[in-house]
Amino acid sequence: MNSVDSNRYFWTLEKLQLFEDALTFNHGPIKSRFHEARMDLLPVLYDERAFPDDLSDQWQTIRYNLTLKGAANDNGELIKDPIEHTLDSYNNKDLEKLARNLIDLKSQLESYLEN
């Protein structure tokens, strides 16, 4: 791994850690904590090279699940960011699973960077 990739992956890891911290330390229902924490994911969301190839498929699945509803309503009007719009449609069980998947991905990225 070259230094540019290494720096990028450490940046991604930092964003995922901020996300996890926000979920863990903020108060309230998971949906409101997830809404607050999503801001840490937005920069990573649009970086196609945020993860090494070994973790790319897993990230793409999570990314798809984070943005499933898109940013527009049924009339095609832009209403919110795609994560916020998607989160509004999820129940607590869905959000818990999505959070576990993101935290697991963070752990895998940590292991990748240690090797």
Helices and strands, with pairings:
Blueprint: H1 3-25, H2 30-45, H3 53-66, H4 82-87, H5 92-114
Helix pairs in contact: 1-2, 1-5, 3-5
What does this structure look like?
The protein has helices at residues 3-25, 30-45, 53-66, 82-87, 92-114. By secondary structure, the protein is mostly helical. The model has no long low-confidence stretch (mean pLDDT 91).
Helix content percent band: over 70%
Shape: globular
Number of distinct helices: 5
Number of domains: 1
Mean pLDDT: 91
Amount of beta strand: under 5%
The total of beta strands comes to 0
Would you tell me the structural class of the helices and strands?
mainly alpha
Low-confidence stretches: none
Q: In sequence order, what are the helices and strands, one letter per element?
A: HHHHH
Supply Rg: 14 Å
Q: Please report the distance between the alpha carbons of the first and last residues.
A: 10 Å
Largest sheet features: none
Features:
5 helices; 71% helix; 115 residues; mainly alpha
Write a brief structural summary:
With 115 residues, the protein is an all-alpha fold.
